[in-house]
Amino acid sequence: xxxxxxxxxxxxxxxxxxxxxxxxxHRQEYVQSLLGFPIPASTQWQxxxxxTGCALLVFPALEKxxxxxxxxxxxxxxxxxxxxxxxxxxxxxxxxxxxxxTGILAQNGAHKIAFFYNSQRHSGENMERxxxxxxxxxxxxxxxxxxxxxxxxxxxxxxxxNCLSHGFRKFDELQAFYPEHCLPIKCLLDVxxxxxxxxxxx
Length: 202
Hints:
By secondary structure, the protein is an alpha/beta fold. The protein folds into 3 domains: 8-64; 68-159, no CATH class; 166-197, no CATH class. The chain is 49% helix and 17% strand. It has 7 helices and 5 strands; from the N terminus they run H-H-H-E-H-E-E-H-E-E-H-H. A hairpin with a 2-residue loop joins strand 2 and strand 3. The longest helix has 27 residues, at 41-67.
């Protein structure tokens, strides 16, 4: 019989709800109280620290698998990091002040591996760090991203495939100003989207 007060599977569920489903600890505290099992947000944080000790051993192994996959998607979005905001205010001459979440989805065989990196690093810088773990003998990885130059790693050569959805939206924005140029391109992109929606049979 398990002797700890909180079973490892319970810690795993808390982690999934917080970091995969995006449910804050205080909201989980409220839900648990509705179920008759109150667990304070501070206790949940402590349990996540305990879980981190196990997860940190798995994380580098997953990064190595992802780095040696055949296809990697990467994307940036902005976020707010309280410590970094405070540090930026104390250092007004600081050159880099932006904060980002980089989402990386890698395909290695039949496995899909997802990472979310929260820092001041751009998507391309996170890709650079990941691809440093790629075997030198491997062929170039296919990289799927939008056309922003911050998505491209500095020293690793990849097969870059830019996102058609981003391109379509940009031409849609410009159509009112340049209809004769944008409409034909949108029609061509529409063909690609239609082909992509056709079911593929193995």
